[in-house]
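Below is how a single chain appears once it has passed through the pipeline. First comes the sequence as given, then the structure the pipeline wrote out for it. We keep one example in the README because the format questions we get most often are answered faster by looking than by reading.
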Amino acid sequence: MMPPDSHPSAPHGRVLPPDGLTRLTRLLAIGLLLALVAHGLAWELWWAPTGRGTLAIKVLPLLAALPGLWRWRMYTYRWLSLLVWLYVAEGLVRLGGDSAVSARLAALQALLAVALFAACAAHVRWRLRRAAASSTTA
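Resulting structure:
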């Protein structure tokens, strides 16, 4: 599947075919997103539930990003790279205040979220760099 969006500076809206690094960062972002969702659900429903497990709804915003990542939407990579910092913050807060099991789960959430940020940022940066390079050579 080709990325449907292109950089505004690309000549005549030409879409660049994805290269190896673009595909890798996309796969990493999708995999890390799914891992963060699975971790959030398992944490709140089975491993260390808080109350009735209602905190499991915190993964819903992450699920909203999945179709955009799958369709190569640059806008989704950008807003997801900002959203994940809420999960980092929650993980760090709960790391300091929760029990041992929950603290380890909080640390894992923070690490997964930072890794997801890095994958999204690398994807956006690489695609913009490729679009700029192709517009100067065309």
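Residues 100-137 form the longest helix (38 residues).

See the next section for the split statistics.
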